[in-house]
Amino acid sequence: MRATTLVAGLCAVAVSGVFPAAAADRVSAPPPAGLTEAVEQTVSDGFPGVVAYTRRGERASRVAAGLADTATGERARPDQRFRIASNTKSFVSTVLLQLEGEGRLSLDDSVERWLPGVVQGNGNAGRDITIRQLLNHTSGIYDPTEEPEFFAPYLERQEWDHVYTPRQVIARAVRHKPLFAPGSGWSYSNTNYLLAGLVIEAVTHHSAPSEIRHRILAPLGLKDTSFPVTDPAIHGPHLHGYDLAGRDMTRFSPSYDWTAGAMISTVDDLARFHRALFTGRLLRPAQQRELLTTVRFPKAPAYGLGVQHMDLPCGSGPNTERISAWETDGAGPGFTSVSLITTDGERQLVLVNVYDLGAELKDERPIPESGGLGKAQAAALCN
Questions:
Q1: Torsion of CA 365, 369, 371, 377, to 10 degrees
Q2: Please, what is the Cα angle at 194 between 188 and 197, to 5 degrees?
Q3: What is the DSSP letter of 130?
Q4: What is the pLDDT of residue 13?
Q5: Cβ neighbours of 162 (radius 10 Å)
Q6: Tell me, what DSSP letter sits at residue 216?
Q7: Separation CA 261–CA 256 (nearest Å)
Q8: Helix (H) or strand (E) segment spanning residue 373
Q9: Helices (DSSP H) in 25-179: which residue ranges?
Q10: Low-confidence ranges of the chain (pLDDT < 50)
């Protein structure tokens, strides 16, 4: 799922070796003016707990407000882990781009080449879909995770350990006709990234989570980031996730999301990864250009390969300044998060809070309404 509501709220106002920790990981600074007040406002407006990381140049700050666990009264802290949901997609696209840079595949290869017979039937044809179209969501493949009944084992029967395998989700997707011919439109589909994960495994003969650990987590020292496959628990210090009724949604099998959104991280780890990615430290120049090449369709975002470009407002009125940024986000049971970095790489914001998946599936607002979100964005990214 995607944190579209949170982002709307914000907008309304080949690699080897070990990278040294970025200077911003070592130099702490007071939060930008207004950030602490903005985060505290979101809690006053109904978010159980909110955690934010910001960076300006080499100086980083962290802010937390509210509760990590409403049952025990544990306070929210910036070092606590959370489910990053679809922020996982930028890790997956990075691995595939690295594999292309090593000459082991082309983004213009067909899905059929690497996954013969997996995408077929009801008008679906893997031979007509490229890896690139999976990564930029122009494949037209249906997304069954948009269906309320898909989540019935969890949300209706409380079977929090229920497992969907990636191939089961893909098989469910191809029972439906494509939404459009490949390359002729744009539609966000988690199915695309489940197929992308299977492509990683077909090319490398290793599991997709192990490739992400080897290529990204270990080199960057992301010690608090993990990729569970079926384990429904979050281990170590962590935020609890809630729906809008206050039900604890922390225990939830990530199996259905896999390479579309199963990862767990912290605001610091996610910020370090995105700083490395968007400043060109993880990809060769040709692949960096591909990452940031966006597609343009009516009523669709400027979407690249697992990342999105945004022009965000700083202020209001006819002479409002706008700031250019790259964004990833994620939303699922109990958690939503957004990661923003200015295109010059100088400023970042990573913010995490609550999300009601059941409400989204009913086309209802999945997060509390709060002007604090826009204020936090302005405090972190604007002058």
A1: -50
A2: 125
A3: B
A4: 37
A5: 17
A6: I
A7: 9
A8: helix 372-381
A9: 35-44, 88-101, 111-114, 131-135, 152-155, 166-173
A10: 4-5, 8, 11-24
| Structural contact between residues 305 and 97, judged by C-beta atoms closer than 8 angstroms | yes
Q: What is the pLDDT of residue 23?
A: 47
Cβ-Cβ contacts under 8 Å for 264 (sequence gap 6 or more) = 81, 82, 83, 84, 225, 226, 227, 228, 234, 238
Residue 344 has a pLDDT of 95
- CB within 8 Å of 263: residues ≥ 6 apart: 83, 84, 87, 88, 91, 212, 225, 226, 227
DSSP letter, residue 75: E
DSSP 3-state of 59: strand
Rounded distance between C-alpha atoms, residue 13 and residue 35, angstroms: 14
Under a CB-based contact definition with an 8 Å cutoff, are residues 209 and 227 in contact?
yes
Judge residue 89's burial from the number of C-beta atoms within 10 Å of its C-beta, 0-12 exposed, 13-18 middle, 19 or more buried.
Answer: buried
Catalytic sites, residue numbers? 86
The count of residues in the chain is: 383
What pLDDT score was predicted for residue 169? Answer: 98
Tokens of 187: 């539609």
Asked if residues 325 and 340 have their Cβ atoms less than 8 Å apart, the reply is yes
Tokens of 137: 């969501």
The C-alpha atoms of residue 48 and residue 353 are separated, in whole angstroms, by 8
Cα–Cα dist 134/296, whole Å? 15
- Token reading at 257: 């999301």
Q: How many whole angstroms separate alpha carbon 375 and alpha carbon 42?
A: 10
How far, rounded to the nearest angstrom, does the alpha carbon of residue 365 sit from its chain's CA centroid? 19
Q: Residues 6 or more apart from 344 whose CB is under 8 A from it?
A: none
Predicted confidence at residue 383, as pLDDT, reads 77
